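Progress against Task 2.4 (sequence-to-structure conversion) is shown through the following example record, which the project officer requested during the mid-term review.
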Amino acid sequence: MASLKEVKARIGSVTSTKKITGAMKMVSSAKLKKAQYAIESIAPYQERLNNILNNFLATETDFQSAFAEVRPLKKLAVVVFSSNSSLCGAFNSNVAKRLSEVVEEHKSLGADNIVIFPIGKKIQEFTAKLQVKAEGDFQDVADKPNFDAMSDITNDLMNRFLNKEFDKVIVIYHHLKSTAVQKLQTETFLPIALDSNNANASSGGDYLVEPSKSEILESLLPKALRTKLYACLLDSNASEHGARVVAMQTATDNADDLISELTILYNKTRQQAITNELLDIVGGAAALGK
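Structure tokens generated for the chain above:
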């Protein structure tokens, strides 16, 4: 059995850890609120932009875009979002697992024809272990979401898709459903699906368009793609903080349980030491009485 000094030292160590996890939870909660506000700020713009696109598509049934061109898959690009730091539960490991599954599904393309765009230090480190290409260092973007930086990445992807350097672009990111639930998403970013049959022409009214709806659509599509990828970044960033809040709360609860168990052990050890001392005193007194 551990000595009183050892048990007391463990209680002190766990108490210090509990203070750290509690502080990290508070910091992550504050960052989560800020990240949620950023998502709520861009959501109305993204929704309105999508409505305009749907209304135009409902009337421009013959519209064709180079961004919607479906080609035989020869080269694949995967944009993956993770965090720069750990201590957020299974957040990064789930992303890494999904990336491995995507690479395995497309291994017939060959390692040279699968290109990863890792947004975040953790997935960048994981990508280095895979037998695939990785482009860029986007750690700053993962920590501090920036629309201009994501626009540069999106423009690069769009240009390379149009130049047929990529035939398909996949995005892997977490969608924040609540603080406790982050759903891992795998979506096709390019080519986009132009489904005019599901568009609701009456939702946004009629438009007077100049020079033409097709030209307006060609201008709006890149904006929609930039907004979409930026929204994925914001969603991933908020999900990271949500996962860290849950992980730190769980760690704090575990610390409470461990402190309770160690306190019971400390009291039992102390009581046993007192009992042993009393037995020694009684035994000594009995010996002197003889």
